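Annex B, item 7. Sequence and structure tokens for protein A, then protein B.
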Amino acid sequence: MLAVVTDIDTTLAALADPTRRRIVELLRDGPRRAGDLAAQFSVTGPAVSRHLRVLRRSGLVEERGTEADARVRVYYLRSEPLAGLRAWVDQVQAFWADQLDAFREHIE
């Protein structure tokens, strides 16, 4: 269970920043080049690169080169960390639903 919590901590830490959440939202629509992502923000390209580095290290984003130009980096959203986060949220939600049901039965 500790590894799962650590993964969730890493995912939540990466998503804590609004710019990184916006990058994830942009990547939901499909892969994007780093320059295309940077153009969506009013911050510098290096600042977006730092955000992308955090997302890569958390496992939320994957970076690949293109066959046409190895200098061009394309970013893809990875589903595994989000699935782990979703499973954890579902467990917490189920716990509270059970607690509320037990409380309701107790009152009735």
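Protein B:
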Amino acid sequence: MRIRIGGTSTAAKNKYNKMNYDQINIRIRKGGRDAIQAMADYHGMSQAEYIKHLIIQDAKNAKFGDISAIIG
């Protein structure tokens, strides 16, 4: 008999994330993920951190101000 460990914890995390975060999915051509990962590695960031960094910098350049508190 197998005992499932961590099911409640995972469910609680999923519930919290659903209530507190939005999720964005993008589709890119094959090889695009590797290119993004390479740039993220170069900057010492994860892919998600790197993409958020680019959005924040673009908002600043477009004079939208600092949106980092909004997008995390």
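Comment on protein B: The chain has four helices and no strands.
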